Amino acid sequence: MRGTLAELEAVLTVVDHGGFRAAAREIGVSSSALSQQIAALEARIGVRLFNRSTRSVALSAAGEQFVAEITPALAAIRNAIDLAGEHRTVPTGTLRINTSIGATRMILSPLVLEYMRRYPQMAVEIVTEGALVDVNAQGFDAGIRIREAVPSEMIVVPISRFVRPAIVGAPRYLDGHGIPYTPADLMNHRCIRARMASGTRYQWEFERRGEAFTLDVPGLLTLDESDLMLRAAREGAGLAYLNEWQVAEDIAAGRLVQVLAEWTPPYPGLCLYYPGRRHIPAKLRAFVDLVKEIAW
Description:
D-Maltodextrin-Binding Protein, domain 2; five-stranded mixed sheet
């Protein structure tokens, strides 16, 4: 009368994907094979879990109760398997990291590629997003962001001590609009503004001789990705407030010119963060150790 673990997982996959075809693709079997597997389970327990038609698949009343009961049980089983696997000392599997495009540029060579050289059996998946996500809920092992953006309940491992911003513009833009010598001069410029993940617009930060303040700069273009702001600045759309390491090559090549350098204060740098837990998987522990070794 009991269903196998694979059959129970199959039921939840059908529910999650809203039908047999999509669920079969996820599992890696044919639709008919998955349908037969579910039908065999229904026959053994003597209850129809799904109401099927030519156009739709929906849980029956018994199916809804069944899914409500098995969902937490299967989650507990998966967690037990994960916890058992965390006692391995050799990193295996896939390390999933959520970060931003800009941070990826900074950490790809010194950290990620070095990690893969040391552990050639490991796969690494990096997902870049402008908005901060819940790494635990989204199935990531860890995230990399600037320190001030990390939720307070996370365990934090510093990667870089400080990040210094840089205000930059293309030579042709500065030729046409002049060079700003104080932050107040920006009120007469076109600035490329940044939209934060919270939906608010980022106010440019300044500090000089103990005086710190923010400025809501004027501009016609607002973007939510730093790479897009960099591209717009290169093409002469206005002045952009970016990270110094992000624009260093463009400044050296003459594609961009830095202005107001004496007014831009450093702020806390990048960090690796992950949820607090009793056991840390070997794959994450190895990456944490590498960060501590190479942090700059």
